[in-house]
Automatic annotation (TrEMBL):
One of its GO terms (molecular function) is lyase activity. It comes from the Bacteria. This is Sirohydrochlorin chelatase. Pfam families: CbiX. The keyword Metal-binding applies. SUPFAM superfamilies: Chelatase. Keywords: Lyase, Metal-binding.
Amino acid sequence: MEAVLYVSHGSRIAAARHEAARFVEQCRRVIDIPIQELCFVELAEPDIVTGVDRCVAQGATRVIVVPLLLLSAGHAKHDIPAALDIARRRHPSVDILCGAPFGVHEAMIDIVIDRISEQSAPLDGESMILLVGRGSSDPDTKRDMSAIAALLKEKTNVPHVDVCFLAAIRPTLDEGLQRAHASAYRRVFVVPYLLFTGVLMKTIERKLQGFSVSDKEWHLCSYLGDHPRLVLLIQQQVLSLSSVKKGA
């Protein structure tokens, strides 16, 4: 019997954990697999190994692990595989397959555009976009965010898309906001490239308040959230992994 184990980042903020649970509920409705559980990398329970335990306790002989992560960084490359190694030793007869984060995908660009379009202001030649990423010491994070920014610029024809980060790498959020403030663009669309709400979203809101008295129009867009395109990407990944033969 198959199971799907969704792995969210985790947060101390209850609203973020509830958003992850609501998103998984949307996925459950379109994925025809009897066992579906949610777990977290950190800061919340259950953890990944416990998530696998719960699937197996319900009769799962194959667990399809789906990282609810935007980019491939430390959690996807190290933390999740390390936890799954423990789970495999605990359940040697269970086939455990792991998918990939959303990554640089056209659907992600479309979601960002949708979030910008929710604002009342036009995205035109007097506008720029500031993408705010979580940040990681993994060099792939900066590379992937730059690739997303380039695709976003190409698809929207906006004159300028800049990137900054909330942790670990530069430019920092403060630097990104200062650069946008010093630019010639009249409107700045600040897009939190985050999956769910949490401490980092609150940080962006607080920092942006300091620029609200400037002569620019600042538009804080929603984080990506439980967008239908994300549900479709998850559905496609689960179907692909479900078709993999055991031992392949």
